[in-house]
Amino acid sequence: MQKGQIRKALSGFYYIYSEGETYQTRGRGNLRNRKITPLVGDWVEFESDNLIEGYLLDVLPRDNQLVRPAVANVDQGVIVMSCVEPNYSLNLLDRFLVTLEYEQIKPLIYFTKVDLLDDAAYQEVRQVKAVYEKIGYQVFLPNQTSNDQAIKELVELFEGKLTVFMGQTGAGKSTLLNNISPELALKTGEISSSLGRGRHTTRHVELIPLNGGLVGDTPGFSAIDFTEIENTELTAQFPEILKASEGCKFRECLHIHEPKCQVKLELENGTVEESRYKNYCQFLSEIENRKPVYGKNKK
Known about the structure:
Layout: E1 2-10, E2 13-18, E3 21-27, H1 29-33, E4 43-47, E5 54-59, E6 65-66, E7 71-72, E8 76-82, H2 90-102, E9 106-112, H3 119-135, E10 138-140, H4 148-155, E11 162-166, H5 173-180, E12 191-192, E13 197-198, E14 206-210, E15 213-217, H6 239-245, H7 262-268, H8 274-289
Parallel strand pairs: 3-5, 8-9, 8-11, 9-10, 11-15
Antiparallel strand pairs: 1-2, 1-4, 2-3, 4-5, 6-7, 12-13, 14-15
Helix pairs in contact: 2-8
């Protein structure tokens, strides 16, 4: 029996990297019976006499997993936000952030298509950058003439990490990865002018060795649903709201109608950003009104 990591999953095959070699394997039937779905990023046990006819036997315990993109054992997630075509959405940005926070994955925020902004629009994005940096997030905003410095700073964080790139379709994830490492030659797509969003140019998750770490380019999407998070857990996914909540009168204060709520007080004095609080309230409503999913695995 051998141990390795799934670097790619495609058409029923799992490509496992182990001791300098990549093995093409299929999953044993007992994985289905045990309702185990191997994910890219999983550490696994497998057996193989050659590089193309192996069998994946078992999946080792995960540190975390994402549903969209479907990848496990992630260290950090680069949220790629397009400044134009499609325009960035703070609601979508916060959805990504909540998803990563819940799985204890370090978020990094990277703005693309900055060169298409006029000076006024660029200053607006700089203000957004300042808001999220104040919360504690690392934000990469290239200058309007070159993204070289921002890319250099981002790439320095790859070493020893499994990093996924995520963002809505057309945000420029594959283009950004091509700029980071041209030899990847990842397929990029044009924006559909009729739909105002990009075509799905990435069809599967694949981990690529890059700058001492592993990087995944993942399919784009424009919606994230909170299927696992409970209403009492949402506060902890907003760092600044969590910090403020320490002063709330009630331990499980949801910061909506409760008296003596420190979060609402800090919202009034500007310590908690209004857009973040509005998104918190929207997400809380979605969680409280979602239909129950029976038989799901709880964290």
